[in-house]
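Hi U.,

Before I forget, here's the chain from the pilot set. I'm dumping it here mostly so it's searchable later in email.
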Amino acid sequence: MTHVGSETRCSKCEFLFPEAKAVAEAAALVAQPCPSCGGFGLIVDVSIMETVTVMDGHEMQLKRVGVKKPVVESFSKPSLSRKLEKHVYHERLIDRENNLYHEKITDYQSGETIHEQKEPLTDHVGHGSAKNPAGK
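Structure:
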């Protein structure tokens, strides 16, 4: 979110012009003398404040020598939901040693659980790369 503010003062006596809230309004005052000291110089201070939200997460894989796929895969990170059109927090654990699949999606702002699925990994079929190609 962006917040813009400005302030116009006399350059000689620093009288504050309360009617000049924007730079365009301050430009109209250039030809007018200061009501306090009669001076003609103006100081226009403009401030811009920006709010930035930082989101972080992590991913990890546990691999064993001689085993092709990682034994454990896990991530916990922010994600942009196209369906909901907002940021969500996405957590997933695939534990091949303990036959576990766990996925949880929560609303990033409210913390409300949107989706949670916990099941044996062998039962988790028909998703992602395990889907049947269209028409087959």
